[in-house]
Amino acid sequence: MLRITAGKVASAMRGSLGVTSTRVIAVRQHGTEESAEAFDSRYEKYFARDGIDGWEIRKGMNDLLGMDLVPSPKVIESGLRACRRVNDIALAIRWLEGCKDKCGDQKATIYPYLLEKISPTLKELGVPTIEEIGYDKPELALKSVYDI
């Protein structure tokens, strides 16, 4: 109600002041579509930059995990190498957890494929998998009342 009244008052004032209404149309430019290889290359270069710090690594990882995709093994490896350069194993494990979570309902098929592809890099960097350190099972989970 107030919005309608305010709109009528504003249009009446414009008419009395002699101001003509102009509409501004916002045009959003869409860039050209990026191929999967170019996308992977862009994030590999982002994580491979010299002088990258933990905050920038987290930003890149959050951007990737916020998209509707599972990062490719090359991008995951690049992120792991960046974590190793800043000596942040907790971030590397969190990155693996995020990538596993992005597999969604296809965890049984996609996640083993990713582990197979990135396992040489994990061994090279000394980063344990989520299953090796027991983070795949909750430590303090309550038993179901139906199991008692």
Automatic annotation (TrEMBL):
<dbReference type="GO" id="GO:0045277">
    <property type="term" value="C:respiratory chain complex IV"/>
</dbReference>
<keyword id="KW-0408">Iron</keyword>
<keyword id="KW-0496">Mitochondrion</keyword>
<comment type="pathway">
    <text>Energy metabolism; oxidative phosphorylation.</text>
</comment>
<keyword id="KW-0349">Heme</keyword>
<keyword id="KW-0472">Membrane</keyword>
<dbReference type="GO" id="GO:0005743">
    <property type="term" value="C:mitochondrial inner membrane"/>
</dbReference>
<dbReference type="Pfam" id="PF02284">
    <property type="entry name" value="COX5A"/>
</dbReference>
<keyword id="KW-0809">Transit peptide</keyword>
<dbReference type="InterPro" id="IPR003204">
    <property type="entry name" value="Cyt_c_oxidase_su5A/6"/>
</dbReference>
<dbReference type="GO" id="GO:0046872">
    <property type="term" value="F:metal ion binding"/>
</dbReference>
<comment type="function">
    <text>Component of the cytochrome c oxidase, the last enzyme in the mitochondrial electron transport chain which drives oxidative phosphorylation. The respiratory chain contains 3 multisubunit complexes succinate dehydrogenase (complex II, CII), ubiquinol-cytochrome c oxidoreductase (cytochrome b-c1 complex, complex III, CIII) and cytochrome c oxidase (complex IV, CIV), that cooperate to transfer electrons derived from NADH and succinate to molecular oxygen, creating an electrochemical gradient over the inner membrane that drives transmembrane transport and the ATP synthase.</text>
</comment>
<comment type="similarity">
    <text>Belongs to the cytochrome c oxidase subunit 5A family.</text>
</comment>
<dbReference type="InterPro" id="IPR036545">
    <property type="entry name" value="Cyt_c_oxidase_su5A/6_sf"/>
</dbReference>
<keyword id="KW-0479">Metal-binding</keyword>
<keyword id="KW-0999">Mitochondrion inner membrane</keyword>
<dbReference type="GO" id="GO:0006123">
    <property type="term" value="P:mitochondrial electron transport, cytochrome c to oxygen"/>
</dbReference>
<dbReference type="GO" id="GO:0045787">
    <property type="term" value="P:positive regulation of cell cycle"/>
</dbReference>
<comment type="subunit">
    <text>Component of the cytochrome c oxidase (complex IV, CIV), a multisubunit enzyme composed of a catalytic core of 3 subunits and several supernumerary subunits. The complex exists as a monomer or a dimer and forms supercomplexes (SCs) in the inner mitochondrial membrane with ubiquinol-cytochrome c oxidoreductase (cytochrome b-c1 complex, complex III, CIII).</text>
</comment>
<protein>
    <recommendedName>
        <fullName>Cytochrome c oxidase subunit 5A, mitochondrial</fullName>
    </recommendedName>
</protein>
